[in-house]
Input
Amino acid sequence: MVVNNKKIWPVCTLGALVSGLVLLFAVSTDIGGVFMTLAFVFAALALKQTQNFSNLAFTLLIFAAVSASLFYPQAFSHIGEFNLKQLIVPLLMLIMFGMGCSLSAKDFAAVLKTPKAVGVGLLCQFSLMPIIGFVLASMTDLPPEIAAGIILVGCSPSGLASNVMAFISGANLALSLTLTAVATLLAPLVTPVLMSLLADQYVEINVVGMFLSILKIVILPIVLGVVVNTLFKKNLTLINKIMPLVSMAGIALIIAIITAAGRDALLSIGLVLVAAVIIHNVLGYILGYRLAKLFGLDEASARTISFEVGMQNSGLASGIAVEMGKVATMGLAPAVFGPLMNISGSALAAWWRKRNEAIRK
Output
């Protein structure tokens, strides 16, 4: 008898979920946590078999990592005497190096081809999300450092996830890659200034220190990656195949470590933070798209700017929180934002893709 993988993983998901809930409330949270984590893993495997939602599989694996870190925080805090928080910045640098290896001078030359679209995208990126983050932080009455984390997410540039969603949705991928690269390169200057203006009431902002941290985490690895790509382009096939997997594993580990570090705070204010993050993310999509249209950009470019504005580089925000020594507080909003934006971004990309297919028919 041949077992159909498409049917077995949903069954496993349901079985693990029910078992986990029963064990959590009736037996032991330690045992129940294992089954709850497995439920996310099985759900990821189930989605991987589908045509429309396979790109959500990674996000569910992130939720599995978050689940494990909530139930077993000690496993994601230390290994012997080694504090796992020390891995966050090196992992981010490795991810940024991978990004640099995929870039070349041609990518930056694209700015000259579409100056209006790039200008509109950067304006939306560094105005809408910081302001929305500030308003949400003011309205939620969260602890100051956690509120500052919401603003930090808004003041960060877009990340690689926006490029993936632009590709899936049929948006302007070249513009997406250009905006991500340029916004990332501007981040050392723009992010510290915006944080000083908007978040100084919540936490002391060292503009020079933040500038140097972003240089270390982002600019140096990207520049090194671009140099390696330029000099050894023909020999980078293996690196370009491996780096996306390394990046995904690194992001999952970073989020798990941050979740474990801020577990107590997250459990006490989790719903408020999740609500704020969802509003931040969704308003970024809507206002980014509307403003792009208002400036007269075409549909594909407006969709791209929607993703670039709504989807932030939560990994960079996490790294900044680590450098400030506030990963358990300021790092929480980026850790929540990352998985949730991938769910919303995937849903939006799938919806726009279906609209494209309907129009072609």
